[in-house]
Amino acid sequence: MNKSALIILHPDFEEIEAATPIDLLSRAGIHVEQAALGDTRFVTGRSGITLEAATLLDDVIDDEYDAIIIPGGPGIQQLRKHPAICALLRRQFSQKKIIGCICAAPLLLLDAGLIDKIKYTAYPATENELPLARHEPVVIDGPIITSRGAGTAIEFGLALVASLSDKTTAKVIGDSIIWPRN
């Protein structure tokens, strides 16, 4: 059975943190559903790059995915005000399915009431709200994968690949992109 992941594209998302996991998971044969928050499939990131999502989040929010991935960026502050996101994360966590949050996105784990149950990392500027964030590029705690920011996007993406497929597949993909830490 093929694995699937939902990545939520929100206004002012960090482009590298979205595009990198989409690319690496796709190379692993994992279907990545790109869903836009809002009423248009076109979403502009923090650096002015616009991506076209395949669907709107509202149209797939009740669907089941093996992983839910949320890129960071300044748009996280608006995403925190979206109650359905917290409910989605709590449902995914209760089913012991993968949640990937990078940069400021672990703030959503805080808002969903999940942060006190896990070890995590996050963007340094979030440490006033996430004081127990580890200073590691990627932290995996059960089904929760967190990462610090744009510079850790490849390591984050490969961790998602390893969790959704296996470490060998992640290594093969890392080698194919000349990932120096492989």
Description:
With 182 residues, the protein is of the alpha/beta class. It has one domain (4-176): Rossmann fold. It is built from seven helices and nine strands. The chain has helices at residues 15-27, 57-60, 76-79, 83-94, 106-111, 153-164, 167-176; strands at residues 4-9, 31-36, 42-44, 50-52, 55-56, 67-70, 98-102, 138-141, 144-147. It has a seven-stranded mixed sheet, with helices on both faces. Strand 3 and strand 4 (50-52) form a beta hairpin. The protein is globular, with a radius of gyration of 15 Å. The two termini are 27 Å apart. The mean pLDDT is 96.
Summarize this entry quickly:
The protein is α/β, with parallel strands linked by helices and 182 residues long. Helices cover 34% and strands 20% of the residues.
Topology summary:
Layout: E1 4-9, H1 15-27, E2 31-36, E3 42-44, E4 50-52, E5 55-56, H2 57-60, E6 67-70, H3 76-79, H4 83-94, E7 98-102, H5 106-111, E8 138-141, E9 144-147, H6 153-164, H7 167-176
Parallel strand pairs: 1-2, 1-6, 2-5, 6-7, 7-9
Antiparallel strand pairs: 3-4, 8-9
Fourth-level CATH superfamily: Class I glutamine amidotransferase (GATase) domain
Radius of gyration: 15 Å
Classification by helices and strands: alpha/beta
Mean pLDDT: 96
If strands are numbered along the chain, what order do they take across the biggest sheet? 5-2-1-6-7-9-8
Number of strands: 9
Distance between the termini: 27 Å
Percent helix: 25-40%
